[in-house]
Fold this protein.
Amino acid sequence: MFLASFAAVALVLQADPGKPELVDVRLVSNEADHSAFTDLVWFRDAWFLSFREGKGHVSPDGALRVVTSPDGQEWTTAARMTSETGDLRDPKLSITSDGRLMLAGVSALNPPSDIKHQSMVWFSDDGREWGEGKPIGEPNVWIWRPTWHKGTAYGVGYSTVPPERFTRLYSSRDGVDFKPLVETLADNGFVNEATLLFLPDDSALCLMRRDGGGAAGTAQLGQSQPPYTEWTWKDLGMHLGGPNVIRLPDGRFVAGGRSVVGSTHTALAWLDPEAGTLEEFLTLPSGGDSSYPGLVWRDGMLWVSYYSSHEGKTSVYLARVKIPAK
């Protein structure tokens, strides 16, 4: 199936050359009733973008689609994963230590299954031919975004069966056999989706979503040194749904996700790990059901995949953001 390219739907020029600038936004896909939960990677001289499609935000027909493009303009389908037993959700892309593409997600199993969620992975040498999905981790602990560092995949899983509310850090040498490294990483409220970022000195950051009203729903930032068994935490004072984070070449950190400051939207924010703060600097064209960005720095630009329903139909978009060096 071919996904046609679309003209840019947004162009914003900032008067101040020192400020981040939204260069353009392109519609990637709106073919399904609901397309959402994106991720983005540059792999073997091409872009690969993953997302879920189904009849609704939660629906038993959820499938995972991977599309590819040489330039971020014209997109074609590389693969589509389906399941007869569950709603496939939240596909996250990473490159393994041996140079393969890994797609991680979860199957929200349909009744009468005794298991609510089972994390899954798929692997590909070229992004187009994928093997069978393999279960990873423990049932009902959703490993949300595995991240590779020096030959090991690390991932934060969160409990999906109330009343338990905790996150757990896993590690794996092969991307399939995930074992708990930290049994309880955080359990202060409804902590859930988390992304890991490993720094040049091998230290690690963990940006974690937390849900709840008021101060109970603010994102958390964890910091750790190898072997990543001891963590310190800071409250970032701001909600961030579907969180992601990237380190720019100049050393600054950009976080992305769903902000509820004012109206709900997908935002980019400066993350200051030392101060423990998030400061929004750009609102992407978005609203309503929106967030789950993929972040890649390439060709002097921040490329951002995300989804939004601000144009009526929940669709997948790709933005390019110019961020001047500090």
Q: What stands out?
A: DSSP finds no helices and 26 strands in the chain. The CA atoms of residues 146 and 155 lie 4 Å apart.
